[in-house]
Protein backbone atom coordinates (compact mmCIF):
# COMPACT_ATOMS: atom_id res chain seq x y z
CA UNK A 1 0.00 0.00 0.00
CA UNK A 2 2.83 2.40 0.88
CA UNK A 3 4.37 1.95 -2.58
CA UNK A 4 1.06 2.22 -4.46
CA UNK A 5 0.10 5.34 -2.53
CA UNK A 6 3.36 7.06 -3.42
CA UNK A 7 3.21 5.80 -7.01
CA UNK A 8 -0.23 7.39 -7.48
CA UNK A 9 1.07 10.68 -6.12
CA UNK A 10 4.04 10.68 -8.51
CA UNK A 11 6.75 10.30 -5.86
CA UNK A 12 10.20 8.93 -6.69
CA UNK A 13 10.03 5.28 -5.59
CA UNK A 14 13.74 4.68 -6.19
CA UNK A 15 14.59 6.13 -2.79
CA UNK A 16 11.58 4.86 -0.83
CA UNK A 17 11.86 1.90 1.54
CA UNK A 18 8.94 0.10 3.16
CA UNK A 19 8.47 1.04 6.81
CA UNK A 20 7.51 -2.11 8.74
CA UNK A 21 4.72 -1.81 11.28
CA UNK A 22 3.85 1.72 10.18
CA UNK A 23 0.22 2.48 9.46
CA UNK A 24 -0.78 4.81 6.65
CA UNK A 25 -4.24 5.62 5.39
CA UNK A 26 -7.45 3.81 6.08
CA UNK A 27 -8.53 0.26 5.19
CA UNK A 28 -10.94 1.76 2.64
CA UNK A 29 -8.12 3.73 0.95
CA UNK A 30 -5.97 0.59 0.88
CA UNK A 31 -8.73 -1.49 -0.72
CA UNK A 32 -9.44 1.25 -3.24
CA UNK A 33 -5.80 1.35 -4.36
CA UNK A 34 -5.64 -2.45 -4.64
CA UNK A 35 -8.80 -2.46 -6.76
CA UNK A 36 -7.41 0.30 -8.96
CA UNK A 37 -4.07 -1.41 -9.60
CA UNK A 38 -4.82 -5.14 -9.63
CA UNK A 39 -5.71 -5.14 -13.34
CA UNK A 40 -9.03 -6.99 -13.02
CA UNK A 41 -12.32 -5.13 -13.34
CA UNK A 42 -14.24 -7.08 -10.70
CA UNK A 43 -11.70 -9.15 -8.74
CA UNK A 44 -12.58 -11.76 -6.18
CA UNK A 45 -11.03 -11.67 -2.73
CA UNK A 46 -8.71 -14.48 -3.80
CA UNK A 47 -7.53 -12.46 -6.82
CA UNK A 48 -6.89 -9.41 -4.62
CA UNK A 49 -5.00 -11.57 -2.15
CA UNK A 50 -2.86 -13.05 -4.94
CA UNK A 51 -2.17 -9.57 -6.33
CA UNK A 52 -1.06 -8.21 -2.96
CA UNK A 53 0.99 -11.32 -2.19
CA UNK A 54 2.81 -11.16 -5.54
CA UNK A 55 3.38 -7.41 -5.27
CA UNK A 56 4.71 -7.79 -1.74
CA UNK A 57 7.20 -10.51 -2.81
CA UNK A 58 8.40 -8.45 -5.78
CA UNK A 59 8.87 -5.27 -3.76
CA UNK A 60 10.63 -7.10 -0.94
CA UNK A 61 13.03 -8.70 -3.44
CA UNK A 62 13.60 -5.31 -5.05
CA UNK A 63 14.46 -3.71 -1.70
CA UNK A 64 17.02 -6.43 -0.93
CA UNK A 65 18.62 -6.45 -4.38
CA UNK A 66 21.92 -4.61 -4.69
CA UNK A 67 20.96 -3.77 -8.29
CA UNK A 68 17.97 -1.75 -7.05
CA UNK A 69 19.95 0.10 -4.39
CA UNK A 70 20.25 3.75 -5.51
CA UNK A 71 23.56 4.12 -3.68
CA UNK A 72 25.03 1.23 -5.69
CA UNK A 73 23.64 1.96 -9.17
CA UNK A 74 23.60 5.73 -8.70
CA UNK A 75 21.79 7.25 -11.71
CA UNK A 76 22.50 4.50 -14.25
CA UNK A 77 19.07 2.83 -13.87
CA UNK A 78 16.91 5.85 -12.99
CA UNK A 79 13.25 4.87 -12.98
CA UNK A 80 13.95 1.20 -13.66
What does this structure look like?
The protein is mainly α and 80 residues long. It has one domain. Helix content is 52%, strand content 0%. It has 4 helices and no strands. The protein starts with a helix and ends in a 7-residue tail after the last helix. The model has no long low-confidence stretch (mean pLDDT 87).
Please work out how many helical segments DSSP would assign.
4
Shape: elongated
Radius of gyration: 14 Å
Provide the helix percentage: 40-55%
Q: Tell me how many strands there are.
A: 0
Overall number of domains: 1
Determine the N-to-C terminus distance.
20 Å
Unreliable sequence segments: none
Mean pLDDT: 87
Order of SSEs: HHHH
SSE-based structural type? mainly alpha
What labels would you give this structure?
mainly alpha; 0% strand; elongated
Quick structural gist:
By secondary structure, the protein is mostly helical. The protein contains four helices and no strands. The mean pLDDT is 87.
Question: What order do the helices and strands come in, and which of them pair?
Answer:
Blueprint: H1 2-8, H2 27-37, H3 45-64, H4 70-73
InterPro entries: RNF213
Keywords: Ligase
Organism: Scytalopus superciliaris
Amino acid sequence: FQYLKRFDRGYDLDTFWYEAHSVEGSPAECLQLFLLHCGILDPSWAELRNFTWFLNIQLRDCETSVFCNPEFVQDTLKGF
